[in-house]
Write a structure and sequence with these properties.
The complex is a heterodimer of chains A (about 400) and B (about 375). Chain A is an alpha+beta fold and about 400 residues long. In chain A, about 45% of the residues lie in helices and about 15% in strands. Chain A has 3 domains: about 90 residues, Butyryl-Coa Dehydrogenase, subunit A, domain 1 (Orthogonal Bundle); about 110 residues, Butyryl-CoA Dehydrogenase, subunit A, domain 2; about 140 residues, Butyryl-CoA Dehydrogenase, subunit A, domain 3, CATH 1.20.140.10. Chain A has 11 helices and 8 strands. The relative contact order of chain A is 0.09. Chain B is α+β, with helices and mostly antiparallel strands and about 375 residues long. Chain B has 3 domains: about 110 residues, Acyl-CoA dehydrogenase/oxidase, N-terminal domain (Butyryl-Coa Dehydrogenase, subunit A, domain 1, Orthogonal Bundle); about 100 residues, Butyryl-CoA Dehydrogenase, subunit A, domain 2; about 140 residues, Up-down Bundle (Butyryl-CoA Dehydrogenase, subunit A, domain 3), CATH 1.20.140. Chain B is globular and about 80 Å long. The mean pLDDT of chain B is about 95. Classes of the chains: A alpha+beta (about 400), B alpha+beta (about 375). The interface between A and B is large, with 47 and 46 residues.
């Protein structure tokens, strides 16, 4: 049991730790700490920052060099996330491409797809969104109804997707559609790459409860894509999509720990400022929050060791997803309790302060990326071997 | 970076588990818990002679095996899993770690005796208030050229009635002192207490001018250090018991059928088990990190020790309660093991300071005092 790093890892970290503050000064200084999972502020400026990262050689870590990647061990990729969060660099744009579709194509894409799509993901010349959930298919994704019918060399797609983050900014969508109406549930599903800029694709904004508009509905009416843009096999899309979802649950969580520590510090400061620290119940709530944050840190270390030893993570990522949203929601509640009546007042146009935003936006965290209840089921069934829910 | 045990440590775990499965299975636990002593000299002799367990984290220069606190933690985790009724914690953790922190030849000799399996030992710190805070110790030693004398009482002393050596923490003129008292010392009355958790024996000790030998000088630092290490050791024990309890609950949920199917197929039960899993894994993570902190001398130890105690105490109580619940009616019986772990969880919560006392420590460490 040790917490040492190799000489290569230390050098990698040192290089990054020097590069980040240097490049976050100047024209990108205003981006420090900006952006968030439901927070699209300074979007165009953050795209420019992605290009700065790309020019500095910090994108495509661990991707094959022939597609623009840079060799990096898993440890180094983890160190990148930690240093990035430490430097309060802006929330990444292009997560769908860099973290989800990119690795999916590397694993399952054709050579032509990799050549065509991976470089523009890294250079931020193309931005992606994910078309999985539908109004009638959320937790039960396998019941999705969007269908694709072959038309010569092309596919015609009809249906509707929902909760599509950044659809209004995306150039492309990778989506799941039913290609075999006779096959039930996950058996007849295919993953397609579809251009957003076409008459058959219409995007409508969904306003979230914090007033933000990252989410969208995507209506597909005879939308088209080519047969070369099928990912993997026709009717073989489910297995690929499940892998994509696994990527979401892997290294993504690493940056959270540092952000959460910062947020906790700001809440301690808020408690000090508002006189909340005079009350033992507040002090204990703060201590309990910090205790649980530390516990998450210790759990992350064990997960990281597992990741470094095995190369990938499995269902144990459900344990993290069960823990951190609830932690964050409780902290948000404490923030609002400390603000009291003042916390009820917003800026003009419903502009929210960071505490109000955290309180409201954290409600999505136990819903997206697999709901809390789904993850309890996954943990119980796949980690403990308890019997599955009875099926109809 | 590697936050996992190595193959040798895993082999140690397997060896200890096999040993306890054979020598400390439930019938043995029940037999020993029904006695006042809660101690089987034959078991102790096997633990020392066959496995060298009391010696494991004692440095080689004092006759020990020279392993780290991590190895001791693994042993404690397994003892917690088995709920073994034996004075191992009091001897190796309370007494052993206190002796290690004292600069005194006699302390070193006692360590050698512990390593050899020749003596059981404990620390008598708490008094009627039950506080584990060294600052609350009221007993005052009378020190003369001829030695020291102790008067007063110590309560809730772990394995106090069976220990051969009692290390008494008392106020001295130059600060806090540790005084070695022989079990056979004149003026010492040891009364075993009947406790809810019968697997953990406690005693009241009364001192009427009992002769004692001071070990070292001001021992405030050594006592505080021992308490932090003990907090981590307790977390390891709690994690071991919690893992066993999780297995018990899940095993039952898989086989007990009602309404035509295993109760574990109902989400209410399934989700309870999943939440228990998150708690148990978190307990292990906290305990293991604590073990590493102690063994590496990390300055994080004070915060980690209290963090581990705040979390593990409440988590252990919670999972043992859920285990009773999942078992339904039979979980409420004396005969079923669920009650043994449930009671151990509560005694562990009270032991070495309550979670609220640890929250107060963390309040100070995090700069949150009003």
């Amino acid at each position: 049991m040790d917490f040492d790093f190799t000489a290569d890892d230390i050098e990698f970290r040192r290089e990054l730790a020097a590069w980040l503050p240097e490049h976050l000064g100047g024209r990108f200084a205003a981006l420090v700490g900006k952006g968030g999972s439901q927070n699209d502020e300074l979007y165009a400026e953050r795209i420019a920052w992605e290009r700065e990262l790309h020019a500095g050689g910090w994108t495509g870590l661990g991707w094959p060099a022939e597609y623009g990647g840079r060799p990096a061990t898993i440890t180094q990729r983890i160190l990148f996330e930690l240093e990035y969060a430490q430097a309060r660099a802006p929330y990444r744009v292009g997560f769908q491409g860099t973290n989800l579709l990119g690795p999916t194509l590397i694993a399952h894409g054709t050579e032509a797809q990799k050549q065509r799509f991976l470089p523009p993901i890294l250079s931020s010349d193309e931005v992606w969104c994910q078309g999985f959930s539908e109004p009638e298919a959320g937790s039960d994704l396998a019941s999705l109804r969007t269908r694709a019918e072959a038309d010569g060399d092309e596919w015609v797609i009809n249906g509707q997707k929902v909760w599509t983050s950044h659809a209004h900014q995306a150039d492309w969508i990778y989506l799941l559609a039913r290609t075999d109406p006779a096959a039930s549930r996950h058996r007849g599903i295919t993953m397609f790459l579809v251009p957003m800029q076409q008459p058959g694709v219409e995007v409508r904004t969904i306003r979230n409860l914090a007033g933000g508009d990252e989410f969208n509905e995507v209506f597909l009416t005879d939308a088209r894509t080519t047969s070369e843009l099928v990912v993997g096999e026709v009717n073989g899309g489910w297995r690929i999509a499940m892998e994509t979802l696994e990527y979401e649950r892997g290294t993504a969580m690493l940056g959270y720990q540092t952000q959460f520590e910062r947020e906790w510090e700001s809440v301690a400061e808020l408690a000090r400022r508002t006189g909340g620290l005079e009350h033992e119940t507040i002090r204990h709530r703060l201590v309990d929050s910090r205790v649980r944050l530390q516990i998450m840190h210790f759990n992350n270390l064990r997960t990281l060791t597992s990741l470094m030893q095995r190369g990938k993570l499995g269902s144990e990522t459900s344990l993290a997803k069960i823990a951190w949203p609830e932690w964050h929601q409780q902290l948000g509640q404490l923030e609002m309790d400390l603000l009291g009546d003042a916390g009820q007042v917003t800026g003009a146009d419903y502009e929210l302060n960071p505490f109000q935003r955290s309180f409201l936006l954290s409600r999505a965290e136990s819903i997206y990326g697999g709901s809390h209840q789904i993850h309890l089921n996954i943990a119980a069934e796949r980690l403990l071997g308890l019997p599955r829910d009875p099926r109809p | 970076m590697n936050f996992a045990f190595d193959e040798e440590q895993e082999e140690l775990r397997r060896t200890v588990r096999r040993f306890l499965d054979e020598h400390a299975a439930e019938p043995e636990i029940r037999r020993l818990m029904a006695t006042d002593d809660g101690d089987d000299p034959k078991l102790w002799a096997l633990m020392s002679g066959q496995l060298g367990l009391p010696a494991i984290a004692i440095p080689e220069e004092h006759g020990g095996a020279g392993f780290s606190f991590v190895e001791l933690g693994i042993v404690l985790e397994e003892l917690g899993r088995a709920l073994a009724c034996t004075p191992f914690f009091s001897t190796t953790v309370l007494a052993g770690r206190l002796l290690l922190g004292l600069d005194d030849e006699r302390a070193e000799a006692y360590l050698g005796a512990i390593a050899a399996g020749a003596i059981r030992a404990t620390v008598a710190l708490t008094e009627a208030s039950g506080s584990w805070s060294p600052g609350q110790v009221a007993m005052r030693a009378v020190e003369t050229a001829g030695g020291a004398r102790l008067n007063g009482a110590k309560d809730y002393v772990l394995d106090g009635a069976t220990a051969d050596l009692i290390l008494v923490v008392a106020q001295a003129d130059d600060g806090l002192g540790v005084f070695a008292v022989d079990a056979a010392a004149p003026g010492l009355t040891r009364t075993p207490l009947t406790t809810i958790d019968l697997t953990r024996k406690q005693a009241r000790l009364e001192f009427d001018s009992v002769p004692a030998r001071r070990l070292g000088a001001d021992a405030s630092t050594a006592v505080t250090s021992m308490l932090r290490q003990a907090a981590v050791a307790l977390a390891a024990e709690q994690a071991g018991g919690a893992q066993r309890v999780l297995e018990m609950a899940v095993d039952y949920a898989k086989i007990r059928e009602q309404f035509g199917r295993p109760i574990g197929s109902f989400q209410a039960i399934k989700h309870k088990c999943a939440l228990m899993l998150t708690e148990v894994e978190s307990m292990k993570s906290a305990a293991y990190y604590g073990l590493w902190c102690v063994s590496s001398g990390s300055p994080e130890l004070p915060a980690v020790a209290s963090t581990a105690q705040v979390f593990c105490s409440d988590a252990y109580v919670h999972v043992t309660g859920e285990n009773v619940q999942i078992h339904g009616g039979i979980g409420f019986t004396w005969e079923h093991p669920a009650q043994l772990y449930f009671k151990r969880a509560q005694s562990a919560k009270a032991f070495l300071g309550s979670p609220d006392q640890h929250r107060e420590i963390l309040t100070g460490l995090y700069g949150l005092s009003s």
